[in-house]
Design brief:
- The complex is a heterodimer of chains A (338) and B (509).
- By secondary structure, chain A is mainly alpha-helical.
- Chain A has one domain: Orthogonal Bundle (ABC transporter involved in vitamin B12 uptake, BtuC).
- Helix content of chain A is 76%, strand content 3%.
- Chain A is built from 14 helices and 4 strands.
- Chain A has a two-stranded antiparallel ribbon with strand order 1-4. A two-stranded antiparallel sheet of chain A has the order 2-3.
- In chain A, a hairpin with a 2-residue loop joins strand 2 and strand 3.
- In chain A, helix 2 packs across helix 9 and helix 3 packs parallel to helix 5.
- Chain A starts with 8 loop residues before the first helix and ends with a helix.
- In chain B, strands 6-9-10-3-11-12 form a 6-stranded mixed β-sheet, sandwiched between helices. In chain B, strands 18-19-20-15-21-22 form a 6-stranded mixed β-sheet, sandwiched between helices.
- Chain B folds into 3 domains: 235 residues, P-loop containing nucleotide triphosphate hydrolases (Rossmann fold, 3-Layer(aba) Sandwich), CATH 3.40.50.300; 165 residues, P-loop containing nucleotide triphosphate hydrolases (Rossmann fold), CATH 3.40.50.300; 74 residues, no CATH class.
- Chain B is 33% helix and 25% strand.
- The radius of gyration of chain B is 25 Å and the shape is globular.
- Chain B is α/β, with parallel strands linked by helices and 509 residues long.
- In chain B, a hairpin with a 2-residue loop joins strand 21 and strand 22.
- The chains are: A mainly alpha (338), B alpha/beta (509).
- At the A-B interface, helix 1, helix 8, helix 9 and helix 10 of A face helix 10 and helix 11 of B.
């Protein structure tokens, strides 16, 4: 009797086991990397070093959470780095201009933040609409907007650097440099974005539709899903994430130039991929992305703490880690499917 | 008149199984030089399998192939082509980004030393296209051509080879009437040159026009073979479908003559697919849609549902005019659609079973976040209702058997609690047992007051389940059959354009 009746426990068990490797892979790698860090230099575990590292990973991490949605739904956004630079530039110009009217108070900063959010949403919306309504590959559209935003910020800065008014910067500074309950504010923002992202991706219709669209757009269409709307929304969400990252980035240096945010798009994509999201869509994981972003920063941090490998080889080590991570994920896929 | 011309290609006692499923049983087929041999049969009769075996795409499970009397064992289609056996595919097999000329010579490019001899290729390509009376430019990219032009390129590709046996699998499916006539004149020229031609088509009218010899397959068995002369279209139609309808099908529920019309389509026009089609659907009724693949049945239904653009026409739901711009609108009016392509359009294969089940009506499982528990509960209910049985540890929809996939898809579609269900080819590629379950399910649906539109290429299914059958041919709804008219010969005649609206214009004076 027990042979014919489907055994409900058995498949469940295997599922959990299978998920183990794939879900925990990036976490295991992160822990291994941390242990390596401690072995190289005990200072690695110091509170200062850790909080510094997490703060730095917050920019890429926040952007990468947005990228997780875009990539899961089968898209790609190359414009995030330039978008960040452009938003930062406009924020600075706006805040400097408002000093006369509102003084160097919170109001000015809030206007800057508001402008950042609107710009982020607008830029994401443009990426989304052109991709879906124009039926152009996301790679091409965002390659285009990437060039546009980059040149716009260069133009605004007239080839040089835009600098935030010193007095405004004093008001704005705490957003990057202050801590709450011993944890830097950027890390709080990162955590919050990740948490919201996790719920959105795994527990809402929007998230589920992202998975479905990334796996097979036709099936999504035949499941009465507004495919274009959902895809556009992923880009808008990406824009909001870029805007949040920019909001905490601007007080750090108080300036923006053509060099701001260069290669952020690739780092964000790398973080997403290391975290186990499939580049061609259909499968995404927020916590994986968070771990991926932290890992990328950690590599640089560890190289800083040791003399064994030159800091200039940061990119080499990151590159190797990305390829190895994806290779391991693919290998485990294969084993499970055969 | 004269002794039979020499044999070019012969299949002797060919059998073929896929897994445990035998689809061809000891079939013989002989192609003579200079003859057009028509191969007939319903969808799933085994025609495509047979020609794929003859042209080297598939090895037979048993049986023998002889080319000009010599036994051959093709290991690939390339080997068959070296023997002069060339097949033109039903689905076009062209490299879209390459030009016409590059496609025609793909894999057998003419060279001069190390380099391509473009001039020679262009010249030969021109010749072939001139022979086909088309004005296609050899330098055009294939993706810029219309489907019928692509078909012509496919044909040109075949005739530029040293072809001795030409196999054409429904070559006219996407051609216009004029192009069909050009194709036919080409066929007769090839025939005069001594080429043996195997011609597969559903259109009996065409067969009558060009075939010298016919072979009829049914359920993988050879039913009849012989000269085309003396075999009428009606005879052939009967031979093709001649299966008895047994108790496969549950008794139909009765439809009151004054049952309200729940859905009406008026003069629906879909560019390139459907011409002015109108029909009505009553409460509690199964309206079958017959016709060959590509006759426009799917396009018609999808246009009504908002899945395709339509140029003109009106849809009425319970007598009120509605306009569905997106499938979601149709769902709101409690119309569900079961696609024929369950792997490509129905289920997300790499997703779990529960998310697949709930995808169409996810709203119902949210408050406001998705409740995994309610999804699991819904799945358990659906598994029970639709008898989804998992023998192994299945975690994604792609790992399910065809029958179970179909049941899961059915469960997904039913999750919106529809009043009208449009079912497209519900039993394609599934076993007999599951088929019967699905038939019973359709009966239960109508008994509970739902209406069903059933698109099926399986004749017996249409007849066994439908109260009325609408038949389409080449985008025209040729007629709606009722009562005693719902039989295989009638449907076949309407489906091939012999009878009915629009069929007249095909008739020769």
């Amino acid at each position: 009797m027990s042979i014919v009746v489907p055994d409900n426990n058995k498949p469940m068990k295997r599922n959990v086991f299978r998920f183990d490797i794939k879900t925990w892979g990036p976490f295991i790698a992160l822990v291994a990397l941390a242990i390596l860090g401690v072995l190289i230099n005990p200072a690695f575990l110091g509170a200062d070093n850790l909080s510094n590292m997490l703060t730095r990973s917050a920019f890429i991490g926040i952007i990468a959470v947005g990228a997780t949605f875009v990539i899961t739904a089968g898209g790609l956004d190359l414009s995030v780095g330039s978008m960040a630079a452009f938003i930062a530039g406009v924020m600075i110009i706006l805040m400097n201009g408002l000093v006369e009217q509102f003084g160097v108070g919170i109001t000015t900063v809030l206007f800057g933040i508001g402008a950042s959010l609107i710009l982020g949403m607008g830029a994401g919306f443009i990426n989304g609409v052109v991709t879906t309504k124009g039926k152009i590959e996301a790679f091409i559209v965002t390659l285009g907007t990437m060039g546009i935003y980059r040149s716009l910020v260069t133009y605004l800065a007239d080839g040089g650097t835009l600098t935030l008014d010193w007095n405004v910067r004093d008001v704005y500074r705490p957003v990057y440099y202050e801590s709450l309950l011993g944890i830097p504010i950027p890390v709080w923002v990162f955590l919050l974005v990740a948490l919201v992202g996790y719920v959105l991706l795994n527990y809402t219709r929007f998230g589920r539709y992202c998975f479905a669209i990334g796996s097979n757009e036709k099936v999504a269409e035949y499941s009465a899903i507004h495919v274009d709307r959902v895809k556009t929304l992923t880009y808008v969400l990406q824009g909001v994430c870029v805007s949040l990252a920019t909001i905490i980035y601007v007080p750090r240096l108080g300036s923006a130039s053509a060099a701001t945010g260069v290669l952020w798009e690739l780092e964000a994509i790398a973080a997403v991929i290391i975290g186990g999201t499939v580049l061609k869509g259909g499968h995404g994981r927020i916590w994986g992305t968070v771990v991926g972003a932290i890992m990328l920063t950690m590599i640089g941090n560890i190289l800083n703490l040791t003399d064994a490998i030159s800091n200039y080889l940061n990119g080499t080590v990151q590159g190797i880690i990305i390829i190895v991570a994806v290779y391991l994920q693919r290998a485990s896929w294969k084993k499970n499917n055969v | 008149m004269m002794s039979a011309p020499p044999i070019r290609l012969q299949g002797h006692r060919i059998s073929r199984s896929f897994g445990g499923n035998q689809v061809l049983f000891d079939v013989d087929l002989t192609l003579h030089a200079g003859e057009v041999h028509a191969l007939l049969g319903e969808n799933g009769a085994g025609k495509s399998t047979l020609v794929r075996i003859l042209s080297g795409y598939l090895p037979p499970s048993s049986g023998e192939i002889k080319v000009s009397g010599e036994p051959r064992r093709f290991r690939s289609s390339g080997e068959a082509e070296t023997d002069g056996v060339v097949m033109i595919h039903q689905e076009l097999a062209l490299a879209e980004q390459l030009t016409v000329e590059e496609n025609i010579f793909l894999g057998r490019e003419l060279r001069r030393g190390l380099f391509l001899d473009r001039r020679a290729m262009r010249a030969r390509c021109r010749e072939a296209l001139v022979e086909l009376e088309t004005d296609i430019d050899p330098a055009t990219r294939v993706k810029d051509l219309s489907t019928s032009d692509q078909q012509m390129v496919e044909i040109a590709k075949a005739v530029t080879r040293d072809v001795r046996v030409l196999i054409m699998d429904e070559p006219t499916a996407s051609l216009t009437e004029r192009e069909v006539q050009i194709l036919f004149s080409l066929v007769s020229r090839l025939r005069k040159k001594g080429v043996a031609i195997l011609y597969i088509s559903h259109k009996l009218r065409e067969i009558e026009q060009i075939a010298d010899r016919v072979t009829v397959l049914r359920d993988g068995h050879l039913i009849d073979t012989g000269l085309a002369e003396g075999r009428s279209k009606e005879d052939l139609a009967r031979l093709m479908v001649g299966r008895e309808i047994n108790e496969m099908y549950p008794a139909r529920s009765s439809v009151a003559s004054d049952a309200p019309i729940v859905l009406e389509a008026r003069n629906i026009e879909v560019p390139g697919a459907v011409r002015l089609a109108s029909f009505t659907l009553r409460r509690g009724e199964v309206l079958g849609f017959g016709g060959v693949v590509g006759a426009g049945r799917t396009a018609l239904c999808e246009a009504i549902l908002g899945l395709r653009q339509r140029r003109a026409g009106e849809v009425l739901r319970n007598g009120k005019s509605v306009s569905f711009r997106h499938l979601r609108d149709a769902v709101r009016y409690r119309i569900a659609y079961l696609t024929e392509d369950r792997k490509g359009k129905g289920l997300v294969l790499n997703m779990g079973l529960r998310p697949n089940l709930t995808l169409l009506n996810l709203r119902a499982y949210c408050h406001p976040l998705i409740s995994r528990q309610r999804e699991a509960q819904a799945y358990a209910e659906a598994a029970k209702r639709f008898d989804i049985r998992l023998r192994t540890d299945v975690s994604t929809a792609g790992e399910l058997s065809g029958g179970n996939q179909q049941k899961l898809l059915l469960a997904k579609v039913m999750s919106i609690d529809p009043e009208i269900v449009i079912i497209n080819e519900p039993t394609r590629g599934i076993d007999v047992g599951t088929k019967q379950e699905i038939y019973r399910f359709i009966r239960d649906l109508t008994e509970s007051g739902c209406s069903v539109i059933l698109i099926s290429s399986e004749m017996s299914e249409l007849i066994g389940l439908s109260h009325r059958v609408a038949v389409m041919c080449a985008g025209v709804l040729t007629g709606v059959l009722e009562g005693d008219e719902v039989n295989e010969q009638e449907i076949m005649q309407y489906a091939s354009g012999i009878k009915g609206v629009g069929g007249n214009e095909h008739r020769r004076a």
